[in-house]
Amino acid sequence: MPAYQLASREYQQEDTVIELKTCRIGSGQVVIIAGPCAVESEEQMLGLASTLKEMGVHILRGGAFKPRTSPYSFRGLGEEGLRILARARELTGLPVVTEITDVRNLDMVLKYADILQIGSRNMQNFDLLREVGRVHRPVLLKRGLAATIEEWLLAAEYILAEGNRNVILCERGIRTYETYTRNTLDISAIPAIKELSHLPVIADPSHGTGRRSLVAPVARAAVAAGADGLMLEVHPCPEEALSDGPQSLLPAQLEHLLAELRPMAESLGRRLSGSI
Ligand SMILES: [Mn+2]
User: Fold this and answer.
1) Under a CB-based contact definition with an 8 Å cutoff, are residues 9 and 103 in contact?
2) Domains, the chain, ranges and CATH?
3) pLDDT (tens digit, 9 = 90+) per residue, 28-72?
4) If we measure between CA atoms, which residue out of 230, 225, 232, 146 comes closest to residue 193?
5) Residue 233 Cα, ligand 1 centroid: separation in angstroms?
6) In which band, very low, low, confident or very high, does the pLDDT at 185 lie, cut at 50, 70 and 90?
7) CA 12 – CA 55 distance, rounded (Å)
8) How distant, in Å, are the alpha carbons of 50, 144, 228, 235, 247 from that of 239?
9) pLDDT per residue over 16-27, tens digit each?
10) Pair type for strands 115-118 and 96-99
11) What integer pLDDT is reported at residue 274 of this predicted model?
12) How far, in Å, from the CA of 275 to the mean position of ligand 1?
């Protein structure tokens, strides 16, 4: 039995499936999570949310608490951002995922979020992992920016060991010597996780590449490698985005990508729509 016992295939052979109103993550379905990097205003979020719903996106994303490399960058709207996300959910019926950065905000974020996201920079914030492990809300755990696969699974183990078995892993790229891309999205981590663990694993080609032009090809590669879903940043006007504009797709680009992914998923015996 590896050190990450509860997360391991040895412990549980059948895949963990996370049931949400619009999709089943880990069931073989290719689940699409999309939205802006940060919630910027009600107008931005609600308008985009309806567009995404029409395209067949399953889950909305949007950051209200943004851990930024520079303290002078936009750091999110806080609880007002969460309220806007909740309105987007009411309007569309789509579940929402948002990042929690601080254990002191757990009760607040639980009031609004369907999935709690632990960001890359907090993958080894063990107190935060234990706290989200004590609730039963699904947790999306991003890979740390310099974490090995084993360290990532051990971070998941912190959540599982507290009783919360609803963990979704997210490959978002790691730091390498390459600087052309923002991070190096580790495609091989996806099938590796599938071998080592029963937990679902999705990919985030937006942060994984940092470049809009590379998002769609890397998204296709991730699905081909077996990812249970994709997390994609989309903005109606990326040049005006308060964060991560250069890696945000335009809504029309997402629509094009989804049209490419549908037949691709089918050829692999999988589907984007409906539940499997
Ligand atoms: Mn972002």
Assistant:
1) no
2) 18-262 (3.20.20.70)
3) 999 999 999 999 999 999 999 999 999 999 999 999 999 899 999
4) 225
5) 7
6) very high
7) 35
8) 21, 27, 30, 9, 10
9) 999 999 999 999
10) parallel
11) 65
12) 28
Per-residue pLDDT at 276 = 47
- How far away, in angstroms, is 63 Cα from ligand 1 center? 8
Q: For the CA atoms of the chain, what is the radius of gyration? A: 17
User: What is the Å distance from ligand 1's center to 15 Cα?
Assistant: 28
How remote is the CA of residue 243 from the centroid of ligand 1, in Å?
Answer: 6
pTM summary value: 0.97
Is 50 exceeded by the pLDDT of residue 251? yes
Distance 164 CA to ligand 1 centre (A): 26
Q: How far is the CA of 237 from the centre of ligand 1 (A)?
A: 15
CB-based contacts of 72: which residues, under 8 Å, 6+ apart?
none
Spacing, Cα 5 to ligand 1 middle (Å): 31
Give residue 97's Cα distance to chain centre: 8
How close is the Cα of 101 to the center of ligand 1, in Å? Answer: 14
Residue 260 near residue 228, CB atoms below 8 Å: no
Q: How far apart are CA 245 and CA 29, in angstroms?
A: 28
Å from CA of 94 to ligand 1 middle:
20
